């Protein structure tokens, strides 16, 4: 891997401002999902090292929180500038360990950096309140304080943005953080730590620990020093971590699985809907929690939509992420490709029809052919499970009521999308969808200025936007008498 700045490729954990090996000296390999080759080996840490990282974060907390907001803002802003200055190297690291096409990886670096920029600005506006007194001679004041040591556990599908979306608000607010990145994508996390170090983020404020997920998660959740756990990943692990946090009553933020409906009504601009579906469905090879998971199309435009979508899907260039013009890289691992095949086979076995794709790509390995299947119904596994792959299943519906019922027929409630040009329907359906996010005539809803998060079993809390800061703050109420 040829980085412009080779020192961004780190293979040790970052604890208390130093690069550290596991106590045991054990390591595990990081592989390129496009060809299975080992890129680096990183420390296999466990409970003891995680507790030390938490202690370092606790030790750094009091002086970091006592800096003025402007001082913290300037340092975090510097971090943003360094991330953007190293966009090419970070993107290459990401493509090598995660697989997404280089152009998409560059986009994620900018997207990830946008949270750092936003929260550097936002931390100067953590305002409190005054409340009209309830009795004479009293003054009631509300202040907001950083919550303390934060533990963050992040997934492999956005190796930079999921870390910055958590760490930037936490650090800007005055918290200190211990991050456990996914085992598949630790190198981006280390590079972010290296840049944080160069930006002047003091030792102990940001720590990165890699290793045995269960042990690290145990140390993070049982520690009384950790006041908040923020997690992005699967719903079962999110539920497990929430349970583990109960004993020490930690505040939690959970960004969990989705099962996004993408509804196309008869009155939609069909070309716009196809473009929106391409973006929402095939971004990151379908491996996002906000990807369109069920495409519901009204009967009057079903065949036309299927035809137009299939044509666009046939044009997708599948290739290793480092190949010029690649639009879809490999899936993260063999298990992911196997699961996608199983969901398609189940649907086809129950009567669905593969229009294009439907099988592993000719490139072999973890590459999967971009797929459209029609005639999909709600008794198939694919209706209720997160696909996390490049498969567009098309369901047919007759009425608006039926579409809304199908859309809400899931325990998940993260992102939803619909295309319509009827203003009355736009308001009705927006209100009826039980989701944290609704994209209306829009396939990409993620950005740093808007609140990202779900309802039902998709999670708790919001990331990004002014609301994303609140999750790392505690309210303190001062009641002054004798005035
Ligand atoms: N909502 C979302 O954005 C995401 C959803 N998913 C969904 O989950 C499926 C499985 O993906 P997967 O990567 O296995 O998701 P996981 O939920 O298992 O992994 C997410 C993070 O949690 C960590 N983790 C796993 N088990 C524990 C534990 N017991 N204690 C503490 N941390 C733990 C992982 O570590 P490690 O990597 O070391 O195992 C990783 O850092 C996907 O196919 C997709 O459907 C996956 C990723 C993101
Ligand atoms: O899939 C996820 O893990 C959520 C990130 C997606 C996004 O920010 O758009």
Q: Helix- and strand-based class?
A: alpha/beta
Which ligands accompany this protein?
NADPH dihydro-nicotinamide-adenine-dinucleotide phosphate, glutaric acid
Global shape: globular
Mean of the pLDDT scores? 98
Order of the strands making up the biggest sheet: 14-15-16-13-12-18-19
Largest beta sheet, briefly? 7 strands, mixed
Q: Would you report the number of β strands?
A: 22
Low-confidence stretches: none
Q: Beta fraction of the residues?
A: 15-25%
Number of helices: 15
Q: What would you call the quaternary organization? A: single chain
**Helical content (DSSP H or I, runs of 4+):** 25-40%
Active site: 255
Organism: Kiloniella laminariae
Family: Belongs to the aldehyde dehydrogenase family.
Pfam families: Aldedh
Structure commentary:
There is one protein chain. The protein is α/β, with parallel strands linked by helices. Helices cover about 40% and strands about 20% of the residues. The protein contains 15 helices and 22 strands. It has helices spanning about 45-65, 70-85, 85-100, 100-120, 160-175, 185-200, 215-220, 235-245, 270-280, 300-315, 335-350, 380-385, 400-410, 425-430, 465-470; strands at about 15, 20, 25-30, 40-45, 130, 140-145, 150-155, 175-180, 205-210, 225-230, 250-255, 260-265, 290-300, 355, 370-375, 390-395, 410-415, 415-420, 435-440, 455, 460, 475-480. The strands form 6 sheets. Strands 14-15-16-13-12-18-19 form a 7-stranded mixed beta sheet, sandwiched between helices. Strand 12 (about 260-265), helix 9 (about 270-280) and strand 13 form a beta-alpha-beta unit. The chain binds NADPH dihydro-nicotinamide-adenine-dinucleotide phosphate and glutaric acid.
């Amino acid at each position: 891997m040829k980085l412009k700045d080779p020192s961004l490729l780190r293979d040790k954990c970052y604890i208390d401002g130093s690069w550290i090996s596991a106590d045991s000296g054990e390591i595990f390999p990081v592989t390129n999902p496009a060809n299975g080759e080992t890129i680096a080996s990183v420390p296999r840490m466990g409970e003891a090292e995680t507790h030390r990282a938490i202690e370092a974060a606790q030790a750094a907390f009091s002086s970091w929180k006592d800096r003025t907001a402007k001082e913290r803002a300037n340092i975090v802003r510097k971090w943003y500038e360094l991330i953007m200055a190293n966009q090419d190297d970070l993107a290459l690291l990401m493509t090598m360990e995660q697989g997404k096409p280089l152009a998409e990886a560059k986009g994620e670096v900018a997207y990830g950096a946008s949270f750092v920029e936003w929260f550097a600005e936002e931390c100067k506006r953590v305002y409190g309140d005054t409340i009209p007194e309830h009795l004479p001679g009293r003054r009631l004041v509300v202040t907001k304080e950083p919550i303390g040591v934060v533990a963050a556990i992040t997934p492999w599908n956005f190796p930079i943005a999921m870390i910055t979306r958590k760490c930037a608000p936490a650090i800007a607010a005055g918290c200190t953080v211990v991050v456990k990145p996914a085992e598949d994508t630790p190198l981006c996390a280390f590079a972010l730590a290296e840049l944080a170090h160069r930006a002047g983020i003091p030792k102990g404020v940001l720590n990165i620990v890699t290793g045995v997920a269960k042990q690290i998660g145990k140390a993070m959740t049982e520690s009384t020093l950790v006041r908040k756990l923020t997690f992005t990943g699967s719903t079962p692990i999110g539920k497990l971590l929430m349970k583990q946090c109960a004993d020490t009553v930690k505040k939690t933020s959970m960004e969990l699985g989705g099962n996004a409906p993408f509804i196309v009504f008869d009155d939609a601009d069909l070309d716009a809907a196809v473009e929106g579906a391409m973006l929402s469905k095939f971004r990151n090879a379908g491996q996002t929690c906000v990807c369109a998971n069920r495409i519901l199309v009204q009967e009057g435009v079903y065949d036309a939509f299927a035809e137009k979508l299939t044509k666009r899907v046939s044009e997708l260039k599948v290739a290793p992420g480092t190949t010029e013009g690649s639009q879809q890289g490999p899936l993260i691992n063999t298990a992911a490709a196997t699961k996608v095949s199983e969901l398609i086979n189940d649907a086809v076995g129950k009567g669905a029809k593969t229009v294009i794709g439907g099988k592993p790509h000719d490139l072999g390995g973890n590459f999967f052919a971009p797929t459209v299947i029609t005639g999909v119904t709600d008794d198939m596994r694919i209706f209720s499970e997160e696909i996390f792959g490049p498969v567009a299943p098309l369901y047919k519906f007759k009425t608006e009521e039926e579409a809304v019922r199908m859309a809400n027929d899931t325990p998940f409630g993260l992102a939803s999308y619909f295309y319509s040009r009827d203003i009355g329907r736009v308001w009705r359906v927006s209100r009826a969808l039980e989701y944290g996010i609704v994209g209306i005539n829009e396939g990409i809803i993620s950005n740093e200025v808007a609140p990202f998060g779900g309802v039902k079993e998709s999670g708790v809390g919001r990331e990004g936007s002014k609301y994303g800061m609140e999750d790392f703050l505690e309210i303190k109420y001062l009641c002054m008498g004798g005035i």
